[in-house]
Design a protein that fits this description.
Keywords: mRNA processing, mRNA splicing, Nucleus. InterPro entries: GPKOW_KOW2, Rib_uL2_dom2, Spp2-like. It is found in: Nucleus. This is G-patch domain and KOW motifs-containing protein. It contains two helices and ten strands; from the N terminus they run H-H-E-E-E-E-E-E-E-E-E-E. It is of the alpha+beta class and 160 residues long. Among the domains are: 51 residues, SH3 type barrels (Roll); 47 residues, SH3 type barrels (Roll). The protein is globular and about 45 Å long.
């Protein structure tokens, strides 16, 4: 067996792994973007915005709704504010929703703190970032809009 024939294969495998960083010491923006590509964020009791213009001829486009049930990591059942139940909604049809008022409850949906619940302290629309006070950690974190979502679930949960 020739040494030269093994090297390109091993080197190719190394290069493939490089684009999936999983290190905590990277700048937050870079690690959040990497996490958002491979981490699913759907969770029951999140208030989300429907962004698919083609589904039902755009009938629900830009509609706010609540995730009622998560069927798979990237599929859920949603209920509109008007009470319509939508089944089989894909994650890519939705986007996170940031409350318009301070002190509303939010859930971190991406990154190492995913699943934690806190209160929205402030936000910066230009930077698309929210400042959140996490419950039970007594910590304030700054997160991208994609990493946090309005949460209407139970107040006292062991999951947060």
């Amino acid at each position: 067996m020739r040494k030269g024939s093994e090297l390109p294969t091993r080197q190719g495998a190394e290069e493939k792994r490089k684009h999936l960083p999983d290190r905590e010491d990277e700048p937050p923006a870079k690690s959040e973007k990497a996490a958002s590509r491979r981490q699913h964020w759907l969770h029951r009791d999140l208030r989300v915005r429907f962004v698919d213009k083609l589904y039902k001829r755009g009938q629900y486009y830009n509609t706010k709704m609540i995730i009622e049930d998560v069927l798979s990591p990237d599929t859920c059942v949603c209920r509109t504010d008007e009470g319509q139940v939508l089944d089989g909604i894909r994650e890519d049809m939705l986007e996170t929703l940031i409350p318009k008022v301070q002190d509303k409850r939010v859930m971190v949906v991406l990154g190492p703190r995913a699943g934690r619940v806190g209160h929205l302290l402030s936000w910066d629309r230009e930077k698309s970032q929210a400042v959140v006070q996490l419950r039970r950690e007594n910590r304030v974190v700054e997160l991208h809009y994609d990493a946090v979502c309005e949460y209407i679930g139970p107040t006292d949960s062991d999951d947060d």
